[in-house]
Amino acid sequence: MVAQNFVVDLSKPLVFQVGHLGEAYQEWVHQPIVSKEGPRFFQNDILEFLTLTVWWAIPVIWLPVVCWLVYNSIQRGLNCPHAALMVVLGIFVWSLLEYSLHRFLFHIKTKTYWGNTMHYLLHGCHHKHPMDGLRLVFPPTATAILLFPFWNVVKLMSTPSTAPALLGGGLLGYVMYDCTHYYLHHAQPKTEIPRNLKKYHLNHHFRIQDKGFGITSSLWDKVFGTLPQSKAEAKSM
Question: pLDDT, tens digit, for every residue of 75-91?
């Protein structure tokens, strides 16, 4: 199904085109188009609608679920300090998961038709169209589906009273990640910390795309040796 010398027509729905690029997909997808106007993904209007998510839907939908999960742990006998500790632990675990997913899944190398197609849907579209504001956060339907296996894993790792708060912390970490990610692409930070974080993330998009996988922090990039060089360091070598 891979076509020789295939050229993607940006005026047509993209999802079922990109697979035809074969080995050329990796080069194509990492040449960003900087425009707030996103492409069309599917011909079908329902499928197209499911790929579009406004950023504020993430906290509106998931923060009440976080609160319910923490309350559920307290109802099961967990005291408030212990519940807060589980939330913090969940956020910490999410930060490692955020890094790992971005590095090992979102940046997997593909060349087959369906491999390219799935990668484009999962993360390639974001690198190709990094300023597409309606496809920057993860669709809530997909998040809801993924919560079920994550919940089963958390139950295996913890007690009945701590499991809900631990999952709630992980879910809160996810909400912080998605909102931060949107902010880094579309806001103009005035203070040093968010300004440096924005610079760090845009460096991943436009300069060194195989390093700098952390979104909410560079912690795990430092731990695992994927911290990108600064321009000054690169020039000095």
Answer: 999 999 999 999 999 99
